[in-house]
Amino acid sequence: MLRKILIGCCFSLLLSPTIFFLNDSPVTTAETEKPVPEYAKWGKLAMEETKKRYPSAEIVDYQHVGRYKKNGMYVERFKLWLKKDNREFGVFVNITFEPDTERVKNITVVETDR
Questions:
Q1: Is the pLDDT of residue 22 over 50?
Q2: What is the pLDDT of residues 61-71, one digit of tens each?
Q3: SS (H, E, C) the chain
Q4: How far is CA 104 from CA 47, 65, 68, in A?
Q5: H runs (alpha helix) in the chain
Q6: Which domains does the chain have, with CATH numbers?
Q7: Which of 100, 96, 68 has its CA nearest to residue 109?
Q8: Which residues pair with 79 in a beta bridge?
Q9: Coil, helix or strand for 2?
């Protein structure tokens, strides 16, 4: 009888989702996954536009500065840090779009040394 209880406990522990591992990785659930931020698609567009304007530069850092409303439009603002040869510099990218349709109206890229 004791043997059956021990075997049952061992199987329970092995099948427990809190300690069960596949390929040395813990099992993940939807609750542990981070949600994709709202600005992610705009950040991708900011990086694509920067690459068009600076094709030989490497993007070494990226920051979402924020979103604000201006004249009924939304503006997503990003700062990217680039490296080209021995020079490092930043660019601010502003993406202006319609809030309802998300249609892009304007993209500006301005260099900064900070």
A1: no
A2: 999 999 999 99
A3: CHHHHHHHHHHHHHHCCCCCEECCEECCCCCCCCCCCCCHHHHHHHHHHHHHHCCCCEEEEEEEEEEEEECCEEEEEEEEEEEECCEEEEEEEEEEECCCCCCEEEEEEEEECC
A4: 15, 18, 15
A5: 2-15, 40-53
A6: 40-112 (3.10.450.390)
A7: 96
A8: 63, 92
A9: helix
